[in-house]
Amino acid sequence: MSDRVRNLHVRAIEEINSGRPAVGARLLRDALRMDDRTGPLTARLLGTLAAAEVAQGNTGRALELLDEAEDVVVPDDRHLLLSQRALVFVLVGRMDDALSLFDDAILRLRRTDQRAALARVLLNRGMLHQFAGRVRLALADLDQCAQLGASLGPFEGMPRTVAKAVHGRGQCRVLTGDIPGALRDFDYAAEVYADQGKGMLAVLAGDRARALLAAGLPSEAATELDTFLRRVPELRMGHEHAEAELTMARARLAAGDPAEARRWAALARRRFHRRRNDTWTAVAELAMLRADFAAGNGTVRGARAASRLADRLRSLGLRNDADEADLLAARTYLARGKLREARAHLSGRDRPGAPLATRLLRRLVLAELGSAEGDQRRTFAEARAGLALLREHRSRFGSLDLQTGTTSLGGELARAGLAAALETGKPEVVYRWLERSRAQAFRFPPVRTPADEHTVDAVAALRQLAREARAAELKGSQDSDALRRARQLEREIRAKGWRTDGAGERHVEVGFAEVKAELADADSVLVSFLTDGDRLLAQVIGDRRAELMGLGETATVFEAIARLRSDLDAACGRRLPDPLQKVIHMSISRQLAVLAEHLLDPLLRVIGDHNVVLVPTGALSAMPWSLLDALRGRPVTVTPSPSAWVSAKRTVRPPGPVLLVGGPNLKHSSDEVRRIAGIYPDSTVLDGEDATVDNTLNAVNRSGLAHFASHGHHEQENVLFSRLDLVDGPLMAHDVHQLAAVPDHVVLSSCDIGQAVVRTGDEILGFTAALLYSGSRTVVSSVARVDDQASVDVMTAYHQALTRGVPPGKALADATETERLMPFVCHGWGG
Predict the structure, then answer these.
(1) What is the C-alpha to C-alpha distance for residues 816 and 814, in angstroms, rounded to an integer?
(2) How far apart, in Å, are the Cα atoms of 550 and each of 387, 602, 606, 614?
């Protein structure tokens, strides 16, 4: 009988460690019914059953079982009960008592040769330290656990224990801001869990979501959580279910949806409360208060609630959460004009190892206090310090996806500094804060993700699926299965890039005087657009003057751009009935008139007859500037920031070979490539069956100028896979990021491939952006559909002008002057 009981015990441990505590509990109850309840095995059964009850939230029952086990436990097994009781105390918020019990258990085990047991208790104590914000101590315990487990080899379930230690290390790395390292640790744990504990894969999805949230990617975090939440009910992992709901609340809040954030936080609170988990209930209540504040419902009553909650969280041993609650109370008091009460909650300082989010929040509240007190110097100092923290954090990321996403973490800080700068009315101060608040990812050199076999295979498979989907589209149908599989591969490839470390370097911000000098040298005027409340502003900088000008309402301008682009797409290259064509062209004229009145006309006085360099914001990144009458025939260049423009202007490269590529299924692409090849007799021409992805990538690395005449597709939902169609599949923005070198000058004679997804801080992503980030100085591309027949003449004229030494901006302006609806834009450097 004892062998059967032991077998049930082993099976139960396996089920619990695999994330199935309810199944494990049933096996243990069966074992206890067979057991004689007198020997050491009884204590082990009761202790393990207590662990299963803890995992299901039944803390009271767990303590009863542990009390019962105390009567029969032998000295060598005493550590088991100490460790299990400590886990219960963690869940009920008795952190100090839990730590004392773990310390006792570890001290006892160090006197024995029970290394497997010691590894498991170190794992649990490490998790306690991590939860309490003691990251250094957590990492020490987790590393010891992993070393012990590795030394024991594949016995006693050690590979899974090691995986859990590495998993915990990843959780700690999220707290320290090392997101690439955390994701690599999670990958290691996932490989083990897939073989030994599939239930833990759902838990891992929740931790990946928290990592992505810490990197400023709330939508991607929500996608991970959706995966978890679909699986967790069948696994009956109540605590993890509630944690996932709480993380979803944070993701919704970061995405700007406080109502949904509060709903998810309330669900989590209810679930934690039912499990009598006071610790996590308090954390969920903090999320609810944060959502209330974000929704504009911050009241004095709410501030007092946050203050009381801070004391409660501190008593539970959650110092990081307590600090956050105090800062929320201070911010709420500030919003209600109660400065004295706000100061009372700002007396503390950042503790060593405090999470980045808490440190940024403290800088933000102090900056807001400075603004409320009329102390601009303090506002600037605190906002500047917070953005410096964020800059250091961003430098750890090699993925452009994470670099651009991270900007959102400092969005409110940047706005606080810029608002204070606008109050000064000083052009140099406004310029400086605009530079600190936009396109920060351009400050860092590109880091190429090392190619691995899995990613290479995934990209090849994705290309084939895209080709199949495109073939179906050209036949007037849709290959839903190919599209579904392609989306899955895109997510895998994109996620691989998140694991890449940053170089830790950054480019220096170009100063106000330097920009003015470079503008004078280029006979140009710089116009930087920004929003202030519901209106657009523009800072205009020339060689001798700089001023801030008010423009139209943001909503009016952005709506006109959206309608204009829709009209251009409808009118492009189609034979429409005369009445419909007339309506569309009237609408185009109407939208251009609105844009001229609200966007451009106020600027004409200061622009004069100079060349124009534009730094857009938001939807202005999709504006076809040359369609405005006042800019027709005038060199116009669009750049992400003044520093990016100066950097491109100062970069001098020797001319390289010319590459001309003609894509498939485009009626006039071969004609376009043939005519341009006549302008460049020594060019490399890839057309027809020669226009493959491999041929193109091999040639583009060596080219100084590359021209693509092919179908283009801007992917709004997954910009890394915006693409150009080639004969054997798409050339994607992902491919561009992997290139060792990119051409100095790229022309994309393709539909809407000049568009970009614009993230917080005017961080841009897309095919054109990929080329600019990777080092192309000039990219000519379209922000709307292009009439490919008309573009042949425009592109021919453009290249003819280049060979005469005409700068790109002027060459494009001349080539499109007679084509009224040609939405090409010169990006980067046009001088």
Answers:
(1) 6
(2) 27, 8, 13, 16
Q: What is the pLDDT of residues 450-494, one digit of tens each?
A: 777 888 899 899 999 888 888 888 788 888 888 889 889 988 899
Q: Report the number of secondary-structure helices (H) and strands (E) in the chain.
A: 36, 16
Q: Say yes or no to pLDDT of 93 above 60.
A: yes
Q: 416 pLDDT band (50/70/90 cuts)? A: very high
Distance, in Å, from the CA atom of 42 to the CA atom of 685, rounded to the nearest integer, reads: 80
Element of type H or E holding 611: strand 611-615
pLDDT at 351: 79
Identify the bridge partners of residue 528 per DSSP, sorted by sequence position. Answer: 539, 615
Six-digit token string for 701: 């690395």
- Residue found under tokens 């189609």: 574
- The CB-side HSE value for 601 (13 A sphere, CA atoms) comes to 9
Q: What is the CA radius of gyration of the chain?
A: 31
Buried b (16+ CB within 10 A) or exposed e, 286-306: bbbbbbbbbeeebeeebbebb
Which of 651, 647, 645, 675 lies closest to 749, judged by CA? Answer: 675
Average pLDDT over residues 576-602: 91
CA dihedral over 293, 294, 296, 297, signed as positive or negative = negative
- H-type alpha helices, 111-178: 115-131, 135-152, 158-176
The two beta strands, 684-686 and 658-662, are parallel
Determine the Cα–Cα distance for residues 382 and 412; give it in Å rounded to an integer.
Answer: 12
Per residue in 668-689, pLDDT tens? 899 999 999 999 999 999 999 9
Measured CA to CA, the distance from residue 596 to residue 631 in angstroms comes to 10
The kind and range of the H/E element at 724 are: strand 723-726
Whole-model pTM?
Answer: 0.88
